[in-house]
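Thread: HTH-type transcriptional regulator BetI, structure

OP (GT): Posting the sequence first so everyone is looking at the same thing. Length is 197 residues per the record. Can we get the structure tokens written out before standup tomorrow? I want them in the notebook alongside the other entries.
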Amino acid sequence: MPRTGMEPLRRKALINATISTIGERGTLNVTVAEIAGRAGVSSALAHHYFGPKEELVQATMRQLLADLGHDMVNALHQATSPRERVSAIIAVNFNAGQFREETVHAWLAFYVEAQNSLPLRRLLRVYARRLHSNLMSGLVVLVPRPEAERMAEAIAAMIDGLYIRRALRDGLPNPASAISLVEDYVTATLKQQAMSQ
């Protein structure tokens, strides 16, 4: 393969290595040399593609968001009702690609670092707004807008909380049980709303 064709592959390898390295350490306190070594490239090449470590970390987070967005679009295209939209959003957040150990640890490290990094905080806001908007697109058809807003906030909090619990607990929680917990909340709240009308 020509050298120019290698750049996207090396960039992807560096991003994957960043996720793995951060996930293994549970912190962003890693070096470009460690990441480059895991990716099988030199530190100089990593710096050439991404510049300083902060740029590589931001590119990694953007890739995680892009992967989540791609999975979300595919899932939402298959949903045929507002309730299915809500279920699709919940399921995507806990699918095998998103809820694997290293990705969960990387997300937790990004959340912690976002307290001191404006670019990471902005990326997390993008994620939060997208999640809220996607949830509202299904919920607002099912319940009055104030209740939809409250449910969207609760679902997002449950998703974030289950990621944190997975990152902090030994062993691997079952993604199906995480989905079930959130789905139980949605079902119970929708039933309560229907009874109160």
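GT: Both are above now. Quick notes for whoever picks this up: The domain at 3-196 is CATH 1.10.357.10 (Tetracycline Repressor; domain 2). The chain has a mean pLDDT of 90.
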